[in-house]
User: Fold these one by one.
Assistant:
Number 1:
Amino acid sequence: MEPSDNELVQRVRDGDDDAFRLLVERHSRSIFRSAFRITGNAADADDVVQEAFLRSYRAMASFDARATFTTWLHRIAINCALDLIDSRKRRDQRINDGEDLSLLVSRDATPDRIVLGSEMQHAIAKAMAELTGNERTAFVLRHFEGVPLEEIGQILGTKLNATKNTVFRAVKKLRQQLQPFTGSLV
Amino acid sequence: MSTHFSEDEFVLAYYSEPGLGERREHLDACEQCRAELASMATVLDQVTPIEVPELDENYESRVWDRVSWRLRGEQKQKKTRRYEWLAAAAMIAIAFTGGLLIRNDKPVRVANTPSATAIETAASSTQQQRDRILLVVVGDHFDDSERMLIELTNLTPDEDVDVSTERERATELLASNRLYRSTAQSRGEDRVATLLDELEPVLMQIAHGPSQMTPDELRKIQKRVESKGLVFKLRVLRADVRATSVPHLQQQPNI
């Protein structure tokens, strides 16, 4: 039987690096997926995965076994992604100017998307890129991952009202940018 | 009839979040609000989940390779810092002892006492110890510098690159580099001093450069490292330094 995450954490605390390897191998894909949805870029997501594991290793002593390791690790990864977004403002500027935009949106060729065409995709990507790191993360978690607002607050370390406001702002900004493409009024 | 939904309430309704309470009844009854909610849904429904790229089957082991490599680097850095403290402490102790010896040194008495040989032996021994300490810490310094430069030269200059980690490491290395260079010069370790001298401006350029490099900036620094053959030189001299220092260390395990 495979050891649980908490057992592995204990072994890491006792100095067993092999146990940490198992944790890395067990969680790296799911961390990559979350990181990619926030950063919108595979290379950045890769950096986030690496940084999240390094931070988790350094902070292993402070891990509270009452929480699940997965939630704790995801929280670290999301914070890494936010730090990375902050440090990449210059590139975000380039994204705003129209480069790499396709990376931020789905390439699902649904009939709706085909009708909306590249102009809509471009607008979605631009609107997403214009959100702040917190707004984008909160929106991604709520909209794509279906995480309830309360849990998003726990991940971002914000109170429920502040979390709600972050999501509200994100939705408002997206609507303002995208409404013209859907033909209805704000 | 209660007031119409605010925009925030529409968001809560769209995501079926709790907290609307009795306001839901208004939504059921108000055609205008339902239309507005539908309008919001039309927009938000367009924002579909981002397609995550497929990862190859070796992804996990590649992540582990990189993570473990960086952890080893960090542990090594900690060890180097410990050596630096030890070296500094040893040098202070040696200087202090040397000072005491010089103060007590009276030519007539020294010439006539058998302990003169012992003093000479002690001086020679402390000299060797200092040389050994220098070689050990310089070997680690070369190793760290080589790793950082390899990381930097392996980056692809096709977009802006975050080099904040390398920059941070270059700043730390630069401080040690200055100390080792002047020590190596004063100890007559010419090869070591020359390489440290070549390394210093490159470390300075990285340490004082931006944490986010444009492809052009990255290309320039990569070219500089490559044209000087720094990585190769560091590797060769590191091996030489290790070969020289290790046998001494084996004789003196307490250092």
Number 2:
Amino acid sequence: MTVSLRALRDPILVTISLVVLWQVLHQIAGDSAVTAPAPTLAHLWEMVGQARFLPHLRETGLAFLQALAIACGGGVLLGIVLGGHRLTGEVAEPILVGLYSIPKITLYPVILLLFGLGMSAKVAFGALHGIIPVVLFTMNAVRNVNRTYLRTGRAMRLSPAQTAWHILVPATLPEIFSGLRIGFSLTLLGTMLGELFASQRGLGFLLMTAIDLNDVKTILAIAVLISTFAILANAALLAIDKRLHRGAASESEKT
Amino acid sequence: MIKKATWIRTVVLVGAVGALEVVCRTGAIPATMVIAPSAMVTALVETLKSDEIGAHVKQTLSAVAVAMTLSIIGGFLVGFVLHWIPFLRRAFNPFLAAYYAIPHFAFYPLLIVIFGLGPAPLIVLATLFAMVAMIVATMAGLDRVPRVLLKTARIHRLSLVQEIWRIRLPAAAPHLLSGVKLAVAYSFIGVIAGEFILSTSGIGHEIAYAYDNFDNRRMYALILFVLGIVTAFNMAVYAYERRLARRRGTA
């Protein structure tokens, strides 16, 4: 118990100092730029309680979940294929790295033209952001799998699908999970970006409307809501990630 | 000697562009969706010849350059400090890790009030966006300095400054460089995405404006332009990285 308390102490201190910083910013900049923490959070609470808020939340949540499913499923699958076949991987890797580092927002109009306005464009854009790190991490993990495992698989005459499922996935789980964690964050970012531009529903749309109306309280409330979700989800994933890596490390010590 | 993979990659990319060209020219994909690559190139030449785009390009690129410089230097310094003060680092770690999931653009109106209209809020936005990548890379690099090098430094009785300058920084250089690579990419993303959503000038705004006006030729020309510049920049850093790695004998 004491251990978990100590682990919690530092983040709590940082949270407190962030809130204090927020309050100070409010004192300096005034109500028109930064509303104070307490009224903003009260506003957020009130907003979440309203019936007209829920459809927006559901829209964003659904878009995010679909994008995440595509990014994770497709990413792991592609990563296993590219990692398993060396030449294909070598051909694809620089293309993927190049895609990763371009400002994908410039491609959003193209996606809008291809998928039309609405849910599918958001999902596609979110998935586009998330899938590449998942592919890259999975690919590198599969490439570095212990050769002995693969030879054992061949000795047991496993089919490629069986090899992937029974050997590659368990052996590379920690690395794949690291990729999924980054993919998670980027998918959320992509989905939100997609909603900020040419959207009629969702949290991003609410945010854009608030920006147009200069409704600072709502802007900050939504920003806090999304940031909190992102930070908490990420902390949970990070904890699982660390546990997986520790497990993998102790396993390799044993052998 | 060019590797086989490079050949195949070139063939694949050329084939993809060629296929797109064919599909667009035969009308399988209507021009309201995607225009043919050759048409994109001619549109790009036309757009660049007209004078009015120059100002936008200059504005965007100078904003990116400033944001890049600030984020690389600032990110390095912050990463350095965090590396040296474990308490701060432990506290900030969850926030650094979750940083890229936060929708930064939500804070843009706030930045406008603080910094006024013009390029300043965009630069701040892009700097904040890019800096964390550099912070994380700096810490990763400093963490991974081999023990034996530090022992060598002690044997040679190097002062702290000498140790940092001659041992730690060169040893961390590959990580620092990948941080620079990310900071460059993120500066571009930050500035252009900011312009896209919340600005009245710059390339990003021009792309969004062309989209709103169904001006596909101009839109694709500008998209091509941005992707071209970013890719060229990334490839330059990549080439430098490769040269560095070869000199170290690690690649």
